[in-house]
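Example record

One chain of 311 residues, shown exactly as stored in the release files.
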Amino acid sequence: MKKQLSALCFLVIVTITAIAQEKDFPKLTGSYLGQKPPGMKPEIFAPGVIPHSTGLALGLNMLDEGTEFYYSQWEQGTIRIRDRKLLYDVWTQDTIAPFSGKYRDWDLTAAPNGQRLYFTSNRPIEKNGVEKSDADIWYVERKNDSWSEAKWLGEPVNSDSNEIHPSIAQNGNLYFFGRFGPNICVAKYEDGHYEEPEKLGDEINSEYVDIDPFVAPDESFLIFHSNRPGGLGGNDLYISFRDFENDKWMKAVNMGAEINTENSDYCARISTDGKYLFFSRRNLETGEKKFYWIDAKFIEDLRKEALKNDK
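Predicted structure tokens for this chain:
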């Protein structure tokens, strides 16, 4: 009898919760939260659906043809990775990712094939160990319909310095910042292991803050944000294109007034299907943060302009 009452109570709680969730959260179907795709000008992504203003929203990663996404959010004195998925053609509510929630986890970026998620964390290296005073790079791998336990990427990528905001190319090369202060570096992947990280040149880095890299899967471009002089706001997004013929990065250029504003624009990502550029924007007066998206073809227009000016 007690078991039956317990089961009945559980069903009642589940039903009440489901009704409350259904009331508070709209039923959304289709890829990209059922949103109308943007054109060649940035638009707010999913207005009124994602809780943009409650904490610092970082790095929206859209995977699997726009049917699942992950991002970082400051909340309750810490920072966690959150997710949503399209299940049976209906989007789930925003939840803490299964591998996050206990420690500070942030700056997540998906591998190009969506089979790994790389992120920054201060979690202990050893199980039940002490939280680290610095930040390291960790990753999880696809495991059926979920993810593996978080794995420490190890040395020589990680060190006693900070390793923050990883972004990985198809060939395994890993871009991040922190090892050399607020500048971007790369750890090249050769013969099945990582080499010592190298700071990128002055085509990308400056004496100012140059952080939060996102590298294209084929390393044809690198997007980051900077507070260097000559920008339009608090932080602007910049892009450097790869000159494959001469095996070098081209001088980084401001992504322009279509992307950057008098506010702070940061944390760019390309959806794993290559269709859209996502980024965050923080209003410097109100503090409100929102995700924006734009057709990724916009980058090709920037490339043409950069190549023209480079001649």
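Notes: Residues 123 and 183 are 23 Å apart (CA to CA).
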